[in-house]
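Support reply, case 0932

Customer input (verbatim):
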Amino acid sequence: MSLQQTDTRVTLWMARHGPRLLRISLGVVFLWFGALKFVPGLSAADDLAGRTIETLTLGVIKPGLSRPILAAWETLIGLGLVSGVWLRATLLLLALQMAGTLTPLVLFPGETWRVFPIAPTLEGQYIIKNVVLIAAAIAVGATVRGGAIVASPRVAAKAKAEDEAEGRFSPGHA
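Our regenerated output:
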């Protein structure tokens, strides 16, 4: 088998299986981190997450209550992603959770930045890595209505031409 044939087979395999593997691995991360939050002190984000929710709710939801709520929320997101059930609702929960997750960068800059905006603390790095989870969720969301990654340039060019003929946005347009 030639290098070109091997590359084609690998690329086709990645296009076929990548979205499902991404969805499941994202789900495992949420399931794992959510489960940790059920046990006080196991999650590195316990204290900061509790204070963030307390601040965002103007003190209505105290850390003692927010931890199990957040644990259940993240676990539910994880289960939805791993199972592939109710993905639209799951991705909505994920988007809301991620919006809350990023707020400590603004609410607690003294704890999340050594030098704003170029040198985050360890807590800040823990938060900033969530941009990867957000991008993964966007990629998963692109498949909810039957979208797929297309490994063949010929198929992609045909889809782009159809989009252009119908006046739809097509990736690659500037």
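We compared this against your earlier run and they match. Two observations from our side: The CA atoms of residues 122 and 167 lie 46 Å apart. The longest strand covers residues 113-115. Please reopen the case if you see a mismatch on your end.
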